[in-house]
Each structure stands twice: as C-alpha cells, then as structure tokens.
Amino acid sequence: MEQAAISIRQLEKTYQGGKRALDGVSFDVPRGQIFGLLGPNGAGKSTLINILAGLVNKTGGTASIWGFDIDEHPRNAKVSIGIVPQEILFDPFFTPAETLEIYAGLYGVPKAQRRTQELLRAVHLADKANAFARTLSGGMKRRLLVAKALVHTPPVLVLDEPTAGVDLELRQQLWAYVRELNRQGTTVVLTTHYLEEAQELCDRIAIINNGRLIANEPTAALLAKATEKVVEVTVDRDLAAPPEARCFEKVELKGPRTIVISYDKTRVHAGDVLTALADAGLSVVDVSTREADLEDVFLSLTRRG
C-alpha cells in the first residue's frame, strides 16, 4: 500500500497542569486527497497541527509526514509540509514579494527555483507585490499566508481555518486555487468551522472531540449516518395543535398552517408522512423536504461524545 501523506499513531499531548489535549489519536491522511479535520473549539485540532509543524512537543505516540518521522527526520518532515495558521502572522515592514523571498531562502530554495511572482499571481496579490504587508486587508493577509506556506512546494498543505473573516468572493477564489493544487497532486488537510465547505470540498473527514478521534470516514459514508429527514408541509386550514402519527419522530407547528415533521428515512418514506396527514383529515397545499447534512452528523457525534 502506498504510504500515507500523514500517518498518526496513538498521538498524545498532555500540557503542564494535566490538561490532556490529545488522547491516543490514530489516523492516516491518504495521498492526493482533500482531508477534513473537524471538531469543536478546544477539541485538539490545533494541538495536532502544531505538533506536525514542530511547534508543540508530543507526549506520546508517533507522527510522520510523507514517510518522514517528525522525531527521527524532523528537517525532512518539515520540508514536506506547508502550514497556513489560524492566526494572521506577518512582518508588517516587508512587502509580500520580500516575505516570499525570505521564506524561500529559509527553506533553502535556490533563487533560480523560487516562484515568488507565480505564487503572488495565484493568490491574487500580484498588484500588491511591493506594498507593505501592513497595508493589506485581512483577506489579503490570509492569502499571503497561503503563498508563504507554498514557497518550498510541499507535497502536503495544511489549512487551519483559512477562510475565517474572509468575504465570499475571496473564499471562492481560495477554494478554486486549493482545488487546482489538489488536482496537481498536493494533499490538502483542512480544518474549518464552515461545515458546508468541508462537505463540498473534502474526500474524507475525521472528527476529533475532547482529544479523541470519534469518526474517520469518506464524506459520503459520514453523511449516510444522518438518518433524520425533515419535511415542511402547508395544509389547507389553521391548526390549533400539530397532528400526531407513529411515523413522526418530531412534529411542530411553524405557523397556523405550516407543520414541520422529522422522520427516520431508514424506516419511513415521505409518502408515509403524507398518508398520515391525509388520515388526519388534512389536505396538503405545499411541501418541501430537507436532507440531513454534515452539520447534523457533526452535532450528533460530538454531543454523543
């Protein structure tokens, strides 16, 4: 089997004072995928990423990047990964072009092989190449962080909340670029609180809660865990109370003539719901349905955890 882009086994981190941020986490990030790493605030995601970046020392387990153990081959491991941090970190007195040149030099990239202008064009900052970084907007600074993470052409790119505070247009530009990087062979690891982004972008998703791995499946398989379906029905007359039926999981009145019904799609069909309403003497004027999404699965798993 081809080696994983990132391989983590029984990873642990306990901070001074006894706070256990990671508790025996194990998973692989397959090469060539966009991999989602999700979890509530404080779940351990940033600790895990900081361990991979060499900024936090683990207290147990192993981790390797592109086949290089982070303890045995730290330099090779670091050169194999680019990390876009959650915090906006930059030197305000350098221009974007100077910033990329400096970071390329720190990674030992020869001048002839540096891609400063190419990267600035890719993240739509070519016109700001010689402006001081402190004059850039928040979205521009975040895109500069993406370019910084790519100066040494790493095979693995980690994006830690990359679209926080970024407007819709810039977010779409960023995801278009990430998709193109992935098509060219870059493995992408994404953490985000915008779960619709993860659902749309990721091939596979792992969820961490309270320092433990609680899910790690292809996105489609994870979505299949959501069994609840919601149907909203408008009927022909005002109701004082919602109707009841054995096939309803939950039912509530959204308005005098609008009923919101939840049911388990593994044992009940929409036709059963409409039949139950007809049996209650109600005529349906309008109906709409909503499938459960990644947010529903995420909330279900993390609440259970």
TrEMBL record:
GO molecular function annotations of the record: ATP binding
Pfam families, per the entry: ABC_tran (PF00005)
Source species, domain of life: Bacteria
InterPro entries named in the record: AAA+_ATPase, ABC_transporter-like_ATP-bd, ABC_transporter-like_CS, ABC_transporter_ATP-binding, P-loop_NTPase
Domain ABC transporter as annotated: residue spans: 6-235
Similarity remark: Belongs to the ABC transporter superfamily.
Name of the protein this chain belongs to: ABC transporter ATP-binding protein
Species in which this protein is naturally found: Sphingomonas morindae
